[in-house]
Amino acid sequence: MKKTDRDGPRATVQPLALNVVAGGAGFIGSHLCRALLDRGESVLCLDNLQTSRPSNLRALEGHPRFRFLRHDIGQPMPAEVLRMAPRITRVWNLACAASPPLYQRDPEHTMLTNVVGTNNLLRLAEAAKARFLLTSTSEVYGDPEIHPQAEDYRGNVSCTGPRACYDEGKRAAEALTFDYGRAGRAQVRVARIFNTYGPNMDPDDGRVVSNLICQALRGNEMTVYGDGSQTRSFCYVSDMVAGLMALMDAEFDGMEPVNLGNPHEMTVNELLGHVVALTGTRARVVHRPLPVDDPRRRRPDISRAGALLGWAPRVSLAEGLDATCAWFAEELVAEPAAGVAG
Amino acid sequence: MKKTDRDGPRATVQPLALNVVAGGAGFIGSHLCRALLDRGESVLCLDNLQTSRPSNLRALEGHPRFRFLRHDIGQPMPAEVLRMAPRITRVWNLACAASPPLYQRDPEHTMLTNVVGTNNLLRLAEAAKARFLLTSTSEVYGDPEIHPQAEDYRGNVSCTGPRACYDEGKRAAEALTFDYGRAGRAQVRVARIFNTYGPNMDPDDGRVVSNLICQALRGNEMTVYGDGSQTRSFCYVSDMVAGLMALMDAEFDGMEPVNLGNPHEMTVNELLGHVVALTGTRARVVHRPLPVDDPRRRRPDISRAGALLGWAPRVSLAEGLDATCAWFAEELVAEPAAGVAG
């Protein structure tokens, strides 16, 4: 094989911290890669490009400390990644389709990504003596019966329904991660991510913020599932990335999950009002049936993140939606005019 | 490759139903294999012999319609099994260490057995157009907050604790199984098995019935975890096997799990009293701390099994314990005398 970078003339710029970011071409992953590069670290991004946007990747690929490898984490780790183990200091698992229509398209793959994929990355972290962070999800709480959700709530998840491939996959991934931690095989961190929004979202992945903004900008009918009284709490992506980095950096035993999200709760109808006001759309609102097992309420209790990391979200909904609308407006410019795309 | 049996002189005795029984050398699996053979079917037993008793297997191996293949279902299916697909009519997944001390020994393996192993068997069933049955567990209810537990109860499971590799592994296995069913990839059946006891249990796997009987028979101290007021409901193994076979045979869409167990609930102290009376032991009782996440109460609501399968347990605790004690007494004869084994 060829000599690695560190032996060549570029050795002097080889940074100390090499991060493996699985799912680094995705929505949150791409922001994380950017933030790690911005603080002087190196990033090896693994992504199967299943649900990632190529433009997220293009914005990173020119960077001298960024490298991309197309890889599905459910498959055995490529030898070239294993050879980098001595240099890897951090392994971040942000890989998995996260919106219900996408993760339900191939539920077997979703489950294996969460379980086998997480295990493959944990083994890499173990071999590299690197710290590992799993991005778990508020979906581990299912349709919660207590409110807001603190980390010790065990959840109300259907393990037989169409969302189970994701929800139970993430719960299994947490179980695996804490088992590695308990056995001293790796230092572990588990973040439970609540609804997040911002630039680099996929316009068509079916999440409520991107759905409503894109429908408004395209002048299409705006879809509300159910009567819109269900609540969500939306965290702007820069806040989320700051929380993930703080959690990875924090010195503690790591043996408890940490909620990350914005506790500002609103109904879907309120969000709709904001989007309508911001975009000035006159689009009609249509109601569709609530999906199976759709949670009625979601709000994180973030006291643990506050106490442990000194972290709290900073970006207001007004600021965040404004930036997100502006970004989507640019993204959609290249699209055919409303009505043509159908 | 060589011609298969059905082309040879033994073709006339080739039975119609070929069952793949994963975990067939285990406690319940060995009884299931015997029952299938007894009704004239063929059995291919896959087992890694991780927690199975070789003597369970020896009792089956002489049978002309029984075949054993040592195989870990978490590994890719052997080609010789795949070649049998056209003859396979039923795939039973009873493979996984089931007692807490054993499944916690290698939690990664436990999780992968449940997820990857179940998926491998589901793929086999899909290829074979065979019906698939997963033995799930009452552990999917965790430490239940409603009582008794019906199938629509979503459970109270910790996905971060030391039991999660099993509990969440089984929940993930259910999710996978129902996804195959929903997509029409296989006909599926999911049984949630509650505590079961009887001959062929491992004397040393740490389950309460075998623990107490063997301690009594050996004249050792008898261990009760906690104060013994926690409840369990014990099903005799012949009832369990009858339930599993009825579920596999039942004609319905299979898209709901079915509890199998005995609803006769008792405290661990009551069980202890029965065992003491039956064995006449004068052994001292010692109390040890309750394990983490140990469920306080467990009792199946078996109305679904009754309505769907016309099934209910028939063997009383007195009969079942009597048979089990007699079997253990014979098993332990070969052991060194009490006190010597330490």
Automatic annotation (TrEMBL), chains A, B:
Q: Which Gene3D superfamilies match?
A: NAD(P)-binding Rossmann-like Domain (3.40.50.720)
GO biological process terms, alphabetically, are:
D-xylose metabolic process; UDP-D-xylose biosynthetic process
State where the protein is found: Golgi apparatus membrane; Golgi apparatus, Golgi stack membrane
Q: What InterPro entries would the database entry show?
A: Epimerase_deHydtase, NAD(P)-bd_dom_sf, UXS-like
Q: Which residues form the NAD-dependent epimerase/dehydratase domain?
A: 20-261
Protein keywords:
Decarboxylase, Glycoprotein, Golgi apparatus, Lyase, Membrane, NAD, Signal-anchor, Transmembrane, Transmembrane helix
What one GO molecular function would you report for this record? NAD+ binding
What does the record say about its membrane topology? Single-pass type II membrane protein
A single GO CC term for this protein reads: cytoplasm
What SUPFAM superfamilies does this protein map onto?
NAD(P)-binding Rossmann-fold domains
Organism superkingdom: Bacteria
Q: Which cofactor does it need?
A: NAD(+)
Q: What is this protein called?
A: NAD-dependent dehydratase
Organism classification: Bacteria, Pseudomonadati, Pseudomonadota, Alphaproteobacteria, Rhodobacterales
